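Predicting structure from sequence has reshaped protein science. With that in mind, we have picked out one protein's residues alongside their backbone shape tokens:
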Amino acid sequence: MAPQTSETEQVVDLNSWLPITASRKAKWWYSAFHNVTAMVGAGVLGLPFALSQLGWIPGIVAILGSWLITFYTLWQLVELHEAVPGKRFDRYPELGEHAFGPKLGYWIVMPQQTCVQVASTIVYSVTGGKSLKNYSMVAFIASTIRGSHHHPATYGVRSHTTAGQIFDVLNGIGTIAFAYAGHSVVLEIQATIPSTQKNTSKKPMWKGCVVAYIIVALCYLAVSISGFWAFGNVFAMPVFDMLESCLVQKLHFTPGRALRFAGRSTYVAITGFIALCIPFFGGLLGFFGGLVFASTSYFTPCIIWLVLKKPNRWSFHWIASWISIIIGVLIAVLAPIGGIRQIIISAKTYKFFS
């Protein structure tokens, strides 16, 4: 008779196979690299367009303001990763479960994180299919060279009507929010860093985050400013982790390469097909940036912080958290409106599967 395995041993064995917890050998520079790649992606290409919708000063203020708020909420997530001594919250939903309860917490965080990951995959596919180009430094250099030879005379906002300007502002803010999407994978990145009760993973993780955010600021400002000046007027890993965990735990598939290949290939095929159907790059950034990215990056970490840490009323963290929550909720409610309008406008000229 085969020896019985406890539920704890099964979880440990599964964690040694799942992509996020398979290895804990990362250093602080791994954190910096992964956080940069999580942030500086397709969203950066939409920043010049967002700046043209908002205008010079409001656009730069929105980019820097978002950088500041998400830098703070990033710190909160890094701190909360080991909020309980001897326990690690290696996945965003696990932290949600600890804050709001096993069932409620999971269903509050998991759908939001999944939407961020799926939306990122779709938008990245649209980006690759539409442009097959540049990234931040290439966009910066190309825009600067073009601007030197073909400098436009005016830098007014894109729309000429009051209603159009309002909708453009909402879409522009959503586009900027999309650019700060790394929070959905922060705990998963930190899960790869080793830790003990004496030497926690917070220090190397935060060191990497600081370096990453400095690089993010340079890339975002360089691309958005140079792009507007010149032209005028891995995200999927938590999804794979969740998908493979569900296939093994709920549907009782055997962990292995065949399961991993089939599951990931199916996911990529589905999101790629959706990307072919809806080539509305600018509208997608604004819509998804407001609808789900604002939540995972702007206000969900703050809500969890208030629930778990219970800072004193009118203390720095209480005020900072509530400011982030209010701004994040406003973005989540209003920005998708601008994104939908941009999609409707684009639909007049775009054809599906184009």
User: Anything to note?
Assistant: Residues 22-347 form a domain with the Amino acid/polyamine transporter I fold (CATH 1.20.1740.10). The mean pLDDT is 81. The chain has one domain: 22-347.
